[in-house]
Amino acid sequence: MINNLYETHLEVSDLQESIGFYIKLGLELSLTIEERNVAFFYIGETKQLLGVWEVPKGVEVNKRHFAFGTDLAKIVNSIEWLKERGIEPRTAFGKEPIEPIVHTWMPAAAVYFDDPDGNSLEFIAWLPDKPQKIGYVPYLSEWIEKQR
Known about the structure:
8 strands; 2,3-Dihydroxybiphenyl 1,2-Dioxygenase, domain 1; 2 domains; alpha/beta; elongated; 4 helices
């Protein structure tokens, strides 16, 4: 029945700031409805949607998490790519953002960062290896070495 995640929505405190942020990530702004304080972005070739809703002033943003899918060739350079756009990758699972980490149970390489409101975002790329439970989250280079 389900083929993919078609759309998701986030709350933000400043719609214009968030529009600029998501455009820096390469998302295509598809629609802004100013009277509703919302913007919609297309994601990727299949045009999945991200809705970004500004909460009223004084209302706390309910923070969320989601991941943008990518491929291994792109995620390897994603930390530098983010920094070039003024976006700081962040520590995840106790690992500093010096290279992607690996969720070994999937397995998939990941890099974490936040939007201006602290919504937790992630780049994630499936790896061709078999899932493993190794008891910790390795860096991608460690994972690759273990697969040899």
